[in-house]
Amino acid sequence: MAGVLVVCEHLSGGFADITFEMLGLASSLQVGEVSAVAFGSMADRSGELGAASTVISAGCSDDFNPEEYAAAAKSAVETTSPDLVLVASTSMGYDIANPLAATLGIPLIAYCTGIEPEEGAFVCTSSLYGGKMGVTSTVPGPAVVMMLSGAHNADDGRIEGSPGVSDLGAVDTPGRVRFKQLIEPDQGDVDITQSGVLVAIGRGIGGKDDIEVAEELADLLDADMACSRPLVDAGWMPKSRQVGKSGMRVKPSLYIALGISGAPEHIEGMKDSATIIAINSDENAPIFDVADYGMAEDLFDVCEELIEELE
Amino acid sequence: MRFAVLLKWVPDLVEDLEVDDEGTGVDTEDLKFKLNEFDDHALEQALLLAGEGDEVVALTLEGDGAEKMLCTAIAKGASRGIRLTGSSSLDTAGLADSFSQALGADTYDLILTGVQSVDDRDGQLGPVLAARMGLPCVSVVSEVGLEGSTAMVAKEYSGGMVAEFEVDLPAVLGIQAASEAPRYAPVSRVRQVQQTVDLEEFAVSGTGASSGSSITGMAQPESGGGAKMLTGLDELVEVLNGLGVT
Amino acid sequence: MTEHEYQNFVEKENAVIDGIDVSGIWNRMWEPRELTGFDFTYLDKVTSLPGGASMRACYQCAECVGACPVDNVGSYGPRKLFQRLQRGMDLFNHPDLWLCTTCNNCLRVCPKGVDMMQVMPAAREQAILDGNVPAELQEMLQNVAEYGNPMGESARRRTRWTKGVEYPVRDLSKDPGEVDVLWYVSDYFSYHSRGNDAARAMVRVFNHLGVDFGILGRGERCDGDSQRLCGETGLFEELVEHNHALFEQNPHQTLVVSDPHAYNALKNHYPELTGVEYPVQHYTQFLAGRIDQLNGLLTGEFARKVTFHDPCYLGRHNGEYEAPRNLIETVPGVELIEMFRCKQQGYCCGGGGGGMWLDGLTADHTSERLSENRVREAVEVGAEVLAVCCPYEVSRFEDAVKSTGNEDVLEVLDIIEIIDMCIG
User: Fold this and answer.
1) ipTM
2) pTM for this structure?
């Protein structure tokens, strides 16, 4: 077995949690050596990547660049010839994994939540259809698999060590995509990543008017308001309140999800909450798989009754 | 400028999904389909970018929803609709192959498609297509501006962070959200398009492209370990009291 | 632009006639005034649309101002719209286009026949074609087009409500064939929890009465009347085609509807597209026609003070004020109290003409919701129960009861629920 190559994702000078999740997963597969490719000056932090036996240092800029990073990853794969390449199923990962697999002519599995090796092949489970279906695929190595956040325990991969570092050398890119700047989000009035209790609303809230009910509840529970992406896109809530893949990662002691279906992109942002209560009139909503408590009721009925009770 | 928008017909998640008899696919009998919502955003973004004299061409694979998607796109302002015939492969690999053939038949300055779809098990179309065509691609884009022969795009990262890139055209963009919500296509206008406009066709030649993997099983995620379902307000209040938030 | 020759009167600075001071400075009656110096462009844009012509007829008598329910809580009505158009309002790009609930009270009192029921859909259609649709409405229209209901719920779930009722409900899509009564259930009865309550009550009442009835099943789609009034004629035509085919497939003696909007559509607008006159009755008319049989079955009592809200589309639009009242009064124990604005003068709940899905926009232009104003009226006449017979109304009025702080004062019930409570 020619081992696993993990493409290490980083932002603002630190490795993302998912990098350690993938390293942990790679180790647990026991299909050979685990190597990792780190970009730019992140290779200097190879001590954090102790779960890998080799770190490949790709001389790219520290700022993510789709062309550069995909080309470097390709070069890394050609150098190490792994059987399995793990890339994060994230914004950056989309621009690495897909061109990587396409240019190498190897298969790709997306939205993966688990991998089992099986005689030269890999059995992967993917979360598709907004989280409503788990799909199992068998893919022969070498293959690229994109891992969803939360598929594996990050701590398993957080191992200090001194893996050998090898330099990838210069990677040629046509330079058609040029990084300009990174823009931090507006803090807004509340940093929901620090909130103790969150009342989060989703499409089920109906209209902008109807947000009031949830706000009243939040008030009574001394909670902050949060939301899923559609409400930000519609302009009803500020971006600073968005929970999910391209929003905030929150860890409140209580997360109350109202009218949120539970698509994987949202779950990613709130699954670390200590307790999750979900209210959604659709009893098949995926949110109920990750929630601790649920009610398949109309959220307005529940809110109004609850508000009455609490007052 | 000529823009291409790639559209896909996908299962509507408003429905309860069931596994088919073979156990390797979604049961499509009775299942409602619709335009991939991200592709709708891609179309909207193209329409917003297109100016006087520009062309927005909508492309999709032939099938049940093709006419509706293309006619709706034209009703919204797209100039032409092209239906790809001769391929039934709905894998990203097959789609990328089919679209690259159709797109190669003309010059396009910017190709937009949705960032992902609910069923793209073997990868996201935008970057795969771009790799096939040797074009630059940025995915997860929520803002696009054009400046001569380049596009300025905003790519979303987690935590609300956004990275700006400059991209040389021609290029492919995977659209997460258009700058404005997709516009409304009045039904009368769509019907008018259906009655008066001729949709074009492009014959795709045998695509050997496949996902390279096979589906061996499909199941609804186990609910074991899922939520404890509460019935009635009292139980909910009890839980809240127990958590000390009331 | 003057149409008349005005005599050129000269004012005298000082004039006292017979002891009365008519000096020119303050008494400007004699000065020629332009009456028609307005730019008619914006008015013409409306009146040139098919259906928009009657707007021209307004001669500013202001009868409609007192009648318009929106003016009661804002500043609206045909007279004011005419004035604003004269002064350069682009109606197609203005919130005023969407505030009209098409309740018909203005037309009822208008001596010139200025017909908002024609003007509004015509102007709204133009606005939609130009891409000016309020976001809330766009979502609703998309839902109706995709799913056949304004909520955006799966069409497959349209008959879910039938599971909660003790009696079987014949689903004609699964058990086709002739039926005496084809009951067109409607969106809110099918999908809204309070509508489900009324739908189940209807099933029980039908069973007690031995009515041979059936429902269309999952294939039933929105009647389209409100969507027609929002300017989506294309969508309305599609819905008519679809529903008409289902009606034809299921031969029936009577087409009973739960919803006055469906009643209006089927009676007044479907026929011109399909060429068919439907044997349509609102459920209150159907039951009122069986009142003797009903009386024999009403063993329970409903000893409450009940007031009835005339739904615009059954009452004012179609002239039916008695059937619902007959039903209410026939229930033992009921004391029927009328509100001030009742029957022809009934005050609109705000749900018609698309209003059901425009509360966000309306809130910015009114001091309170029409439904809140109506609820306060019901409370003022001493009612304990506000009886309704339009599926839009239960949810509107229950929300209004809460927002006006009248939860312990006024209960909202569909007439069928009251009958169901007392039928034995």
Assistant:
1) 0.94
2) 0.89
